[in-house]
Description:
Layout: H1 2-10, H2 12-20, H3 28-57, H4 62-69, H5 72-105, H6 111-123, H7 126-137, H8 144-149, H9 158-169, H10 171-184, H11 187-194, H12 199-228, H13 231-237, H14 247-256, H15 260-296
Helix pairs in contact: 3-15, 4-15, 5-9, 5-10, 5-12, 5-14, 7-9, 7-13, 9-12, 9-13, 10-12, 11-12, 12-15, 14-15
Amino acid sequence: MVGVAATFDARPDTASKFQANPATRDSSWVRYLIIGVGLTYFALFLLLPLIAVFVEAFRKGAGVYFSALVEPDALSAIRLTLLAAALSVPFNLIFGLAAAWAIAKFQFRGKNFLITLIDLPFSVSPVVAGLIYVLVFGLQGWFGPWLREHDIKIIFAVPGIILATTFVTFPFIARELIPLMQAQGRDEEEAAISLGASGFQTFWRVTIPNIKWALLYGIILCNARAMGEFGAVSVVSGHIRGETNTMPLQVEILYNEYQFAAAFAVASLLALLALVTLVLKTYVEWRAHHHNAIAEE
């Protein structure tokens, strides 16, 4: 070992050569090729369609554009989309916090099964999820006769849309929180309890501050998915104009009726919501990174 060390000490050029040319260093043309492919993909499949939506939306002028957005069916679709997101996100917030807390902080029988259930909407097609709700709550479903007797409408009504939206979006918050809470462990919570803090005080003053950025990030993703959901909502909505059409469904109906300007106008509103979501997501990521950097210092 002394001889080896002496050899490297006597040959500094060799050591510097290894440092200057690591095995993972690629040539310039490889880097430029990878960057070019990525930028080309981004331009063709993301940026160009986004630009096309706004170009087609304003093709017949701003008057036609705004008229399409204030049309009664369009306003109803906007309200229903916002309502579905406003209800499904808090439901998933409560479930995501509870599930992440249980999985990350405790050991219990059935833990792996719970994790599997959380991932279920990622593996099941949204259309299949909508059909499941029809089989359960439809007129010919398991609870259909009882619901009909009590004059309760779920399928082809607003409750069905909210249920379908909640199903397809509930993994997002839990999946953002679970890895972080597992990495943080239970030391701070146990220290707070040992100092006399109650369970609620520990959760509010210790747990929430540690996960607030991941929690906000999950809420943003959940909200974006809720507003853009099409498959499951399409199955349970019944496509009733002015009642059960969300914004994605309204775009489909207008486009199939060859009302292209109106269809792209509503689509542009969805695109604007997506851009706002992207800005918020970027801001949250930046704040989380800044917060982590300060904590490390």
